Amino acid sequence: MRLSTPVYQLKRRAKLLARDEKISLHAALDRIASQEGFAGWSLLAAQIAESSGETNILSRLCDGDIILLGARPGHGKTLLGLKLLLDAIRDGRRGIFFTLEYTEHETRQRIRSLQGETPGLGELVEIVTDDDICADYMIRHLDDAPRGTVAVIDYLQILDQRRTKPELSQQLAALQAFAEKAGIILAFISQIDRAYRPDEKPLPGMQDIRLPNRFDTGIFSKACFLHEGKARFQVIA
Question: I want to staple 85 with a disulfide (CB 3.0 to 4.6 A). Which of 52, 95, 108, 224 is the partner?
């Protein structure tokens, strides 16, 4: 797949278009995607993720793994998480998407752009959009889940935005202990700090995770970082 210009420049054009024509950023992104030959931005981003060569990650994961999926906005991290869930469903596993960012309708639309020639497959993905999502909530929801279940959390940095919830470090420690005991695979979608410079290195790394509240990144056993159609999967010692 070849784009007329890098993704970050397409996003910049969309932001200018949204501002100049007073339309939503979502509508502007879709218009830019149509100029590149795609029906919508989600399809363009899905194609970028698919062409990265590192998107089939389920086979690299073990029961109890906690993986981080990191990228700047618009580079395919959410779509990678949804693809992981679809792969889990294909493998006969339970797949759950916990999101504090998207509605169920928006998520279903994104899933449909990824399910390919298996219509209806995405309907088997559970989507949880409750405002009370936190570590305790997810642990209760997953309490009876079979080993090998895959849960994707969208997204890491939003988990502790409410003052009534425990600190992020405490939530992650609880989830790590639960995942190891129950054999559940947890995948956290994560933002990358704005200080990341793609002109200095092609892909972000663990040191580039946005950390509004500090926590031990050593809780992650694996990670996958994406940028501009490239991806790198790594095992974290």
Answer: 95
Q: Rounded to whole angstroms, how far apart are CA atoms 187 and 191?
A: 13
Q: Residue 96 phi/psi, 5° resolution?
A: -130, 135
**% helix / strand / coil in the chain, to the nearest 5?**
40, 15, 45
Shared-domain flag, residues 19 and 84: no
DSSP 81-142: HHHHHHHHHHTT--EEEEESSS-HHHHHHHHHTT-TT-TTGGGGSEEE--TT-SHHHHHHHT
Task: Classify 29 as helix, strand or coil.
Answer: helix
In the chain, the number of structural domains is: 2
CB distance 229 to 53 below 8 Å: no
Q: Are 46 and 81 in contact (CB under 8 A)?
A: no
The residue range of the domain holding 77 is 58-235
Divide the 237 residues of the chain into consecutive groups of 10 and give the mean pLDDT of each group.
73 90 88 87 68 72 96 90 94 96 91 80 95 96 97 93 86 97 98 94 95 89 91 88
Contacts 24+ apart (CB under 8 A), 198-201: 198/8, 198/227, 198/228
Note whether 67 and 222 are within 8 A (CB): yes
